[in-house]
Amino acid sequence: MIGAHLLREHYRLSAQPVSGAASFCLSDELNPLAFAVYKDGRISAGLEGFHSWIECKGYVIDFLAPYFRENVAELDEHADLPRRVFMKPLSSMADRLPTKGDTVGTFHLVPDEVCQANMIRTFYERPVLGDLQTICSAWYRRPPKKMESTFLIRDDRGEVIELRRKDIGVNGFW
């Protein structure tokens, strides 16, 4: 929701947040990473597994992709994946689930209306998420400008809190 908002506000793009099931091949040596419920060889979204991404101008963008490394580490502590951006044409999506040994970057997405509605409802029911969206929008700077490393906000008691941006070292694309 916030990523789509940033693309709309700072770039005037028609970006839509989408939720559902997702599977990504991140290494030819590992099983694909799935955010889904498996049943009868298919994936679907559910409380036990779902993901969110952005669709914009025929592309899928996943701002959480640099953190896939942590998701994989939960399953295999010896796996060491790079931190990469995920941005690909929707037309390049596989028509089947990725499997071990597929080309790195192979992906399959299954949007889900119930999951989508829940994501939107949850976002608007929690005022703190709207506040976070405002903070992210104020903090963001279009490249080549650099984002500030710190940002001051007030908490619900009126106390000033310093937020510090952490550079996680994104390197390349999936």
CATH fold category name: Atu2299-like
Strand count, sense and closure of the main sheet? 6 strands, antiparallel
Radius of gyration: 17 Å
* CATH homology superfamily name: Hypothetical protein Atu2299
The total of helices stands at 4
Count every beta strand, where a strand is a DSSP E run of 2 or more residues: 10
What proportion of the residues is helical, as a percent range? 25-40%
Approximate strand percentage: 25-35%
Output the helix-strand order: HEEEEEEHEEHHEE
Domain unit count? 1
Global mean pLDDT: 91
Distance between the termini: 22 Å
The residue ranges in which pLDDT falls below 50 over 5 or more consecutive positions are none
- Decide which structural class fits the backbone: alpha+beta
Shape: globular
CATH class: Alpha Beta
Shape-level CATH architecture? Roll
